[in-house]
Amino acid sequence: MVEISCFILVLFNFLTFMYLLLRNKSGVFYTLWVIFVIWFFSFPSYMQYSYRIFPWANYPKDTEIIFSNLITFIFSVFLFAGYIISYKKINNHNLQMESRLCISNVANVVTLLLMIPSVIFIAIVGVSSFFMGRSFVGELVYSDGFLPMLYAASKFGAFGILAVYLVLYIKKPKNQKFGLFSTLMFILAIIINFIVNNPLSSPRFHFLSMALAILVIFRKIGGRLSSVALFLASPFLLFIVFPLVKHLGESSGDYNKYGLSEYLVKGVDFDSFQQLVNITRFVTDKGYSWGENFVAGIGFFIPRSIWQTKPTNLGILAAEHQGYFYTNLSAPLVGEFYYAGDIIGIIIGALAVGLLTGKTDSVLNNSKLSASYFIGLWISSFSFIIFRGAFGSVAPMMMLGLCASLVLYISIIKTNRTPNLN
Fold first, then answer.
1. Could you list the residue ranges that cross the membrane (predicted)?
2. Residue 54 CB partners (closer than 8 Å, separation 6+)
3. Of 47, 96, 192, 248, which is most buried with the most CB atoms under 10 A?
4. Is the separation of the CB atoms in 189 and 158 below 8 Å?
5. How far is CA 119 from CA 108, 153, 273, 290, 397, in A?
6. What are phi and psi of 418, to 5 degrees?
7. What is the pLDDT of residues 157-187, one digit of tens each?
8. What is the structure's pLDDT at 308?
9. If we measure between CA atoms, which residue out of 128, 118, 126 comes closest to residue 151?
10. Residue 178, Cα to own-chain centre: how many angstroms?
11. Dist. CA 324–CA 335, nearest whole Å
């Protein structure tokens, strides 16, 4: 039954992916969901089950594996339903994609203000720290209670700014040029991102998401061919490239050598399935949150001194419940919805996510510049880390970056002198 449950989950997502490709309705979000389920979630978990070795202690029982596959299947069904309902294909290939928005001096001043967290963070830890490995930066960041939020604001805020400048640069007419002040701000954004978001100091999934966002901006991903190419390349990226990138970011220089099968069954990168099982165990013993886990993620900016009962991230709760020594673990989105409200929570959550992301993928494929475009850019490009979770860890970073993009874009719209551009 374990094999059958895994096969059904993989087959359903693969067939829906093929269906959307044939209908030319598959965008970035859904492509990444299928990649996550098949290559990151199901394949490693089946290898772990076959070898009877999992990343963490307290191995799942067969009934727990089947149940975890079942709730993931339910999530997949309603995600697809919502997605196919809300996705609207644009048939007008002559749609004007250019934007004649001008970046005013006021908008450039807003850019400077939004870059303050990045400048402060760089000044505190030093430029060289960002090229000494992720573990080195992590030790500096988490040694101080103030730095983690500044770290998130600097990295994702800086990328949110860069995304807006890149979009405007790509979409501007050929006969339009950036002004001197705008060009300087664009260059400054590139330099700051090169420092704070370089692959040596950035978590791999964060860097991957930013790289995907840039590909979306340049319209190199999102179509049928690019979706198929990304799906086929995913095993190589996840199982070969990611371990190498991880080693590049190790400040110790101690590069472990192991086989692919050992990496899949023992590597903590692929603990999503076991963490989903741990979440179901936690819910069985402790009950449901009734949505507080999502409220806490959205309300990340409220300090615990004010919100004393603020919920802890679900990944930490599930890991602590199992008695793990290391608790900052993932919490798959399926588990977050299950914790929020059982099977009904999964159905409602999956349908809502499908309706939202079908719309955002439509906007991205349309490529018409608007605030919705940037919302879609952030949700779709960063969806992989949303799937992996925990929501309480992911939401602050994404919201800070998205807010930076929207604040800058709105300031450009409000101060733009050219009429009828949006």
1. 6-22, 29-46, 66-85, 106-131, 151-171, 178-196, 202-218, 225-245, 337-357, 369-387, 393-412
2. 48, 60, 265, 271, 274
3. 192
4. yes
5. 16, 11, 39, 39, 17
6. -85, 125
7. 999 999 999 998 888 777 777 788 888 999 9
8. 81
9. 118
10. 31
11. 18
